[in-house]
């Protein structure tokens, strides 16, 4: 490297936001760009090969280095001679492995900071997430950088969530603004250094409205958007998040139990429910004041560009369907978590589209009926039988050899059965949130001016009273055929 060369390093440089930053840095021309990522070599897609990145690599204005952030020697080598480091690396958030995230996000970041100190790198710009200030209980409206890091992340959502969606080029532009502010004369640099900044498009929008705009932009028929429009208007059936959360927790617990046996990471998890059911908007006036940041791509332009970049998802590229099923319309309205769970899973199951899942569900429910309900057992007897089955399974599982006919038998770690302090706090927080929601509802009722809420409560309690008069055995006998036959039959008749 020549003495006049000015290098910058972008860790996680092949990530989504980092790619845009890399191209922006190359286009700016102030630095030679070193792309640091985990892969052994860089693989460019055809557009990149013909574009500015491919040209920069061929000309030597950009280079790729393979780096594992957990290895400080590799980090030191990657940062050698750099004037500024943009730390944007992080594991895929959908990978549910705590050790991986901790080793990369904590140890890896310490290695990056240590390397910058050892090598006397002038500027380090670290990219984080607004999730670090999200406590999971309260939505964030126009939050600023004074928000504390919460002791625990957990939530019960309110269903009318606003979001700050930020176009990726604005994220990249904010990094450029930060670098320039830190490189400026003393006063500007001192005000910019050592601070956290929120970066947004400064145009918060309702989550469902955003989803509707994306679907409409992709060319889906208005009938497909009816469920979303009903959500805006407050129509249709809405299932509260506190009803969905226990199901998500059951899915998560099942995964933890069966992951050693090859169960895939589920997408319907408490973390997804938490992220998608609370408002999250942020005030980025501090970034504007100290970094000189303003969005360079307005929301509508960013939305248009995003839709254009996902042309393969357009409606005309998808297999032809007859439109949304009634099961989707009835079950898919309301919050996004309901759509994800009910439309993708429940609607398909009720309509017998996935016969394997439907038959498995029916088998499990029928087994529960004959083993615990049809016999007329008391609750104590039912619990005793359930525990007996669990104990027998665990006993047999514990005495099995490590291998049977060449198949490895994974043992369930004892830690899976402990009820941790962390989980205790979550349960207590969930109960407190549910209680507070109920109290808020009672306060609204006591004011006597919310007739809609009053009628909903009266109707709900009437239905509950009616169902309470029916035995659990009769509910199963009547409910199972209705649930698994009615939607299917109705859908067939509707198509005819």
Automatic annotation (TrEMBL):
Subcellular localization is given as: Endoplasmic reticulum membrane
- The UniProt transmembrane annotation reads 359-380, 386-405, 457-490
Q: What membrane topology is annotated for this entry?
A: Multi-pass membrane protein
Q: Which Pfam families match?
A: 3Beta_HSD, Reticulon
The terms under GO molecular function for this entry are: oxidoreductase activity, acting on the CH-OH group of donors, NAD or NADP as acceptor
Look up keyword Oxidoreductase and say if it applies.
yes
Annotated coiled-coil segments of the chain: none
Spell out the SUPFAM superfamilies in the cross-references. Answer: NAD(P)-binding Rossmann-fold domains
A GO BP annotation: steroid biosynthetic process
Chief location of this protein? endoplasmic reticulum
Q: Which parts of the sequence belong to the Reticulon domain?
A: 346-496
Q: What domain of life?
A: Eukaryota
Record's keyword terms, sorted: Endoplasmic reticulum, Membrane, NADP, Oxidoreductase, Transmembrane, Transmembrane helix
Answer whether the UniProt record assigns the keyword Oxidoreductase to this protein.
yes
Q: One GO cellular component term, please give it.
A: endoplasmic reticulum membrane
Q: What is this protein called?
A: Reticulon-like protein
Species whose genome carries this gene: Camellia sinensis (Tea plant)
Q: What is the lineage of its organism?
A: Eukaryota, Viridiplantae, Streptophyta, Embryophyta, Tracheophyta
